[in-house]
């Protein structure tokens, strides 16, 4: 265990393409050997995007999301941070971004080698916020991109995975990492982001042999085998109009 993790709670580890990675309960991914922190699908300014269309959500999602990244940055002191696409909710997000939040982003990008991976929501990250843009990042046996393509060693986002299991008296639904040991899909870290159940057919295309879910808990990541997972629609059920 690295010094950066020494003061954290019990850690969960996963292996991907032979590399040891740490899925964090906040939703980030830590690669100790490279001092690399990965976060995905921040969707900054999603609240203001909805407000502009008349759906008045509290305008605090960007601040809450940045606070998580800032906390992980302070705890782990990464050399590099990769924001794995859909960092901003839309192309006009920078026009709605309060200057106080812009300053916090610039503080992060100036303190680290910050890489904005291009997403489907934000192909052109704002240049004035610092960092550098890449479509794909390759580092050792791992490749980082926004949308999964099924390549061995791939770390991607985009699908916003969630796992559902039976709890004590009720079902529990949590954001999660999804992996088969060869490829990994990150959870969405954004405060207002929803999620797609890992039993959805979209994940079957990425993990044809099945997957393990690493569910985010309070201060801990829980490993869930495929047999314990529940779908959002009971098996055999059909939608009725």
From TrEMBL:
<dbReference type="Pfam" id="PF00149">
    <property type="entry name" value="Metallophos"/>
</dbReference>
<dbReference type="GO" id="GO:0016787">
    <property type="term" value="F:hydrolase activity"/>
</dbReference>
<dbReference type="InterPro" id="IPR024173">
    <property type="entry name" value="Pesterase_MJ0037-like"/>
</dbReference>
<protein>
    <recommendedName>
        <fullName>Calcineurin-like phosphoesterase domain-containing protein</fullName>
    </recommendedName>
</protein>
<feature type="domain" description="Calcineurin-like phosphoesterase">
    <location>
        <begin position="35"/>
        <end position="131"/>
    </location>
</feature>
<dbReference type="InterPro" id="IPR029052">
    <property type="entry name" value="Metallo-depent_PP-like"/>
</dbReference>
<dbReference type="InterPro" id="IPR026336">
    <property type="entry name" value="PdeM-like"/>
</dbReference>
<dbReference type="InterPro" id="IPR004843">
    <property type="entry name" value="Calcineurin-like_PHP"/>
</dbReference>
């Amino acid at each position: 265990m690295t010094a950066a993790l020494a003061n954290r709670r019990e850690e969960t580890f996963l292996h991907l393409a032979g590399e040891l990675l740490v899925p964090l309960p906040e939703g980030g991914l830590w690669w100790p050997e490279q001092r690399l922190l990965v976060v995905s699908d921040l969707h900054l300014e999603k609240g203001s995007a909805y407000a502009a269309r008349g759906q008045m959500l509290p305008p605090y999602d960007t601040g809450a999301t940045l606070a998580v990244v800032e906390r992980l940055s302070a705890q782990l002191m990464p050399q590099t941070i990769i924001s794995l696409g859909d960092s901003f909710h839309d192309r006009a997000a920078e026009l709605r971004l309060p200057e106080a939040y812009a300053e916090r982003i610039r503080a992060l990008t100036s303190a680290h080698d910050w890489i904005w991976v291009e997403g489907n929501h934000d192909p052109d990250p704002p240049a004035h916020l610092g960092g550098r843009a890449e479509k794909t990042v390759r580092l050792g046996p791992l490749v980082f991109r926004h949308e999964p393509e099924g390549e061995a060693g791939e770390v991607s986002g985009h699908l916003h995975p969630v796992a559902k299991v039976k709890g004590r008296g009720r079902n529990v639904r949590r954001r999660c990492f999804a992996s088969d040991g060869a490829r990994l899909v990150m959870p969405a870290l954004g405060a207002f982001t929803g999620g797609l159940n890992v039993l959805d057919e979209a994940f079957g295309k990425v993990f044809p042999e099945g997957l393990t879910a690493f569910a985010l808990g309070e201060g801990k990541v829980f490993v869930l085998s495929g047999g314990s997972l529940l779908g959002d629609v009971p098996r055999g059920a059909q939608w009725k109009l």
